[in-house]
Amino acid sequence: MTFEPSSPSATAICRRHFLRDCRIGVGRAALASLLAGSMTSSSHAAPANPMAPRQPHFAPRVKRVVHLFMTGAPSQLDLFDKKPELTRLEGKPLPPSVYGNQRYAFIRPDAGVLGPRFKFNRYGECGAELADVLPHLGSIADDISIVKSVHTDQFNHAPAQIFFNTGFSQPGRPSLGSWVTYGLGCETQNLPAFVVMSTGSGISGGSACWSSGYMPTVYTGVRFRNQGDPILNVSSPPGFDVQLQRDSLDLVKNLNEQRLASEGDPEIATRIASYEMAFRLQTSAPELMDLKSETKETLDLYGCEPDKPSFARACLLARRMLERGVRFINIYNEGWDAHSNVEGNCRNNCKVTDQASAALIKDLKQRGLLEDTLVIWGGEFGRTPMVEANAALGRTLGRDHHPQSYTMWLAGGGIRRGVTYGQTDDLGFHIAENPVHVRDLHATILHLLGFDHERLTHKFQGLDARLTGVEPAHLVSGILA
After folding, report:
1. CA–CA distance, 395 with 415 (Å, rounded to integer)
2. Kind and range of the H or E element at 369?
3. How far apart are CA 122 and CA 261, in angstroms?
4. d(CA 235, CA 223)
5. Do 178 and 221 meet the contact criterion of CB atoms below 8 Å apart?
6. What is the DSSP letter of 417?
7. Which of 161, 217, 276, 470 is least surrounded by CB atoms within 10 angstroms?
8. What is the DSSP letter of 44?
9. What are the counts of helices (DSSP H) followed by strands (DSSP E) for the chain?
10. 239 pairs with which residues across the strands?
């Protein structure tokens, strides 16, 4: 602080003068301190390379994750959770003692019961019961754990999708893939650590499902297209050779590094990493997307046409990404929202997803990758035992949203094989045994990756925030090998 001749002497300045004259500087200092705290972790110092590989809390069972997200919510009662009582009671209303004060978006809770639309068969040595529209999943029944007792806090699609991916129903929190890459870093320098693909008409939760939220944006998922260049403008326009581009990037990188050294803002490190990744993607991305090196047997296994965008192609690309060091992959397959014609909805979506989902497990297994990869399959909630029929909306023989219970399956390292875990009541309405909350799945996924979910934290608004929040979360030990 500088004193002018007309100013009081230094000894005459009291605390009040100091706070009055320096209020802006003190405020800035305080704000800078708070912001710095919000961008660092109690367990992770800000690294020079934010994607540098890091060690988890303990020895992991898996190194990478593929999340096959069936957005819109598949009907567990028609695919996984056989309920003969629904067939017996079809057309009759549920007793009030079952639904209590539950409210629904499009039907009355006392709407008539709708029985399962498909025949169920037993598959594998484990005898898992699955609908006959899932024959390919049946062929790997002995390799998966089926969890029939998942439940969530959210009732509508966008909040439920965001909740499953981030642990919170509002946008602004880091996604599961962001937490994984924040905790482990990246094994490859040529592709993003966290990749997102979609194979349908749209995702209700949008980019909030793969956002890094309050973390540095370097941990945000990178959206890949399913055809052509995975990222728009990844190819250089005519007239720009590699050396000119490299020289330009080096100049920008030097300027950014100077700014990073003076300010320490992790978003500058993100910018540097993004520019460098974009440059490397110009070589690695076309090679990744070119399926000419895949054998006919592999393409037939997935049911994949090399140049046609599809869920099958996305699954095959996911395997290729895992081989190249990608840490976390989201594949969203939209279209499971069966408010009408649940039978046709499930049949059509199973044609799209069943073969490729099972092929991914088989392919990873034969290549020795399944033992340290986790594969997750499921939606944001389930469907009601009651029928949805609304002439005004043109709906018949559908099912409404049901957050109280639904089914998912998992496979890979650390997962018990050939297991069916959890049960619902005779009507498939409430969980009768071994409830599994979404937070429990989050804790279990992090555990398989070598993390204690209570210790993997990031400083946010003065708190050590975590994926599982402050509510209780427990490991689903019944599905752990």
Report:
1. 39
2. none
3. 62
4. 16
5. yes
6. S
7. 470
8. -
9. 14, 19
10. none
Residue 69, sorted as left (phi over 0), alpha (psi -120 to 50) or beta, turns out to be beta
Strand 144-151 to strand 419-421: parallel, antiparallel, or no bridges (unpaired)?
A: parallel
Q: Which two tokens stand for residue 190?
A: 């040529």
Nearest by Cα to 401 from 112, 97, 202, 156: 156
Q: Is the separation of the CB atoms in 289 and 230 below 8 Å?
A: yes
pLDDT confidence band for 355 (50 / 70 / 90) = very high
R_g (Cα) of the chain, nearest Å:
26
How far apart, in Å, do the first and last CA atoms of the chain sit? 64
pLDDT digits 0-9 by tens, 449-460: 999 999 999 999
Q: What is the pLDDT of residue 33?
A: 36
3-state secondary structure of 459: strand
- Segment among 6-15, 35-44, 409-418, 438-447 with least mean pLDDT: 35-44
Considering only CA atoms, which of 334, 439, 430, 440 is closest in space to residue 382? 430
**Helix crossing, 242-263 with 266-289: angle to 10°?**
150
Q: How far apart are CA 62 and CA 446, in angstroms?
A: 10
Here the tokens at position 192 are 């993003």
DSSP 41: -
Distance, CA of 431 to CA of 403 (rounded, Å): 11
Which residue's structure tokens are 């000119």? 244
**Pair 249, 276: CB distance under 8 Å:** yes
